[in-house]
């Protein structure tokens, strides 16, 4: 190639890099950017997303100045996270990218029209939630296996044993739906029969005469709905089970099937176990690291760069008004 062509190619490559790093396409240069960080023009759709998020966190009654400052700070963290992730030349796994896509699709399905009306695209949401995934990747880079400040495996596993339980469960119901679609309680005879069924299932599983799957089939054949599920549960997850359920399961010996009953449900629970090589433990490592040092990685990200932030208030006020109008519509 001639020197001229090489210079042109380099210039085009640099233009593409700047456009990507600014988190938008080059078309953003056609309009003044509301926010510039360290001489990088942040795309207006990204700024608008964070301005809207600031309103959600602070309330629409908050005045313009604190909201735009909050949005700038949020965008600054976004900038730092992207920059630090690329500085370490990290990458997301296929599963991590799929998780971002699934989350974005779910949010867009509910709020897509609203975001479109304020100028935030689905692509914008993908950028923002990808940055969240970058944060998690940085967390693992610093504190995961082989990381800069690796957390010992023994500490991770101790946390796992204290905060998670693994079990198989068959659920029975002390309620049913009548012909009018109302939820009603089982009569006394049906309730006693269901409890007896679960007692029989427990005895057969513990005697090795049935697996949990066979016990569930036995329950169905007896006229009661039931299926077996394998569950890994955190002690703070109280949404799916009765109060005190975690502690009761945790107290059961491993490989033992026990009955746990509440006002509306009866459970046959077979407690499992997971060693340091199990998939259950390995799948929860990142979550455990988050629980242990999640705030620390946020401090690391915030301290990574000094920011020079410039706000074009004439542009920012336009987006501020647009969001207010949309929320009041």
Structural summary, described in words:
The protein has 329 residues and is of the alpha+beta class. The chain is 58% helix and 13% strand. It contains eleven helices and nine strands. Strands 6-3-8-7 form a four-stranded antiparallel sheet. Helix 2 (44-58) packs across helix 3, helix 5 packs across helix 10 (279-303) and helix 7 runs antiparallel to helix 8 (212-221). Mean pLDDT is 89; it is low at 1-30.
What is shown here, in short?
The chain is α+β, with helices and mostly antiparallel strands.
Question: Helices and strands in order, then pairings?
Answer:
Layout lengths: L2 H19 L13 E3 L2 E3 L1 H15 L5 H24 L6 H24 L4 H22 L9 H11 E10 L1 E3 L5 E3 L2 H19 L5 H10 L6 E7 L10 H6 L6 E5 L3 E7 L7 H25 L5 E3 L1 H16 L1
Antiparallel strand pairs: 1-2, 1-9, 3-6, 3-8, 4-5, 7-8
Helix pairs in contact: 2-3, 2-11, 3-5, 4-5, 5-10, 6-10, 7-8
């Amino acid at each position: 190639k001639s020197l001229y062509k090489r210079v042109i190619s380099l210039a085009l490559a640099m233009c593409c890099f700047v456009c990507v790093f600014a988190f938008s396409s080059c078309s953003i240069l056609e309009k003044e950017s509301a926010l510039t960080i360290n001489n990088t023009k942040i795309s207006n759709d990204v700024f608008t997303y964070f301005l809207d998020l600031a309103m959600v966190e602070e309330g629409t009654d908050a005045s313009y100045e604190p909201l735009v400052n909050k949005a700038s700070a949020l965008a600054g963290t976004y900038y730092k996270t992207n920059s630090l992730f690329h500085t370490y030349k990290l990458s997301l796994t296929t599963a991590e990218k799929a998780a971002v896509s699934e989350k974005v699709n779910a949010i867009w399905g509910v709020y897509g029209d609203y975001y479109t009306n304020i100028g935030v695209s689905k692509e914008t949401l993908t950028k923002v939630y990808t940055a969240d995934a970058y944060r998690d990747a940085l967390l693992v880079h610093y504190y995961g296996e082989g990381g800069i400040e690796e957390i010992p495996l023994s500490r991770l596993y101790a946390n796992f044993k204290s905060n998670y339980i693994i079990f198989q469960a068959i659920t029975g119901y002390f309620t049913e739906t009548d012909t009018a679609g109302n939820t009603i309680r089982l009569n006394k005879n049906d309730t006693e029969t269901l409890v007896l069924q679960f007692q029989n299932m427990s005895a057969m599983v513990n005697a090795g005469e049935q697996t949990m799957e066979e016990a569930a089939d036995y329950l169905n054949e007896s006229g009661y709905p039931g299926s077996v599920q394998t569950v890994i549960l955190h002690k703070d997850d109280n949404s799916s089970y009765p109060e005190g359920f975690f502690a009761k399961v945790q107290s059961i010996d491993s490989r033992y099937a026990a009955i746990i009953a509440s006002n509306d449900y009866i459970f046959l629970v077979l407690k499992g176990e997971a060693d340091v090589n199990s998939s259950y433990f390995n799948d929860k490592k990142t979550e455990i690291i988050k629980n242990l040092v999640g705030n620390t990685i946020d401090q690391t990200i915030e301290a990574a760069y000094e920011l020079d932030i410039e706000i074009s208030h004439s542009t920012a006020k336009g987006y501020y008004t647009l969001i207010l109008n949309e929320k009041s519509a």
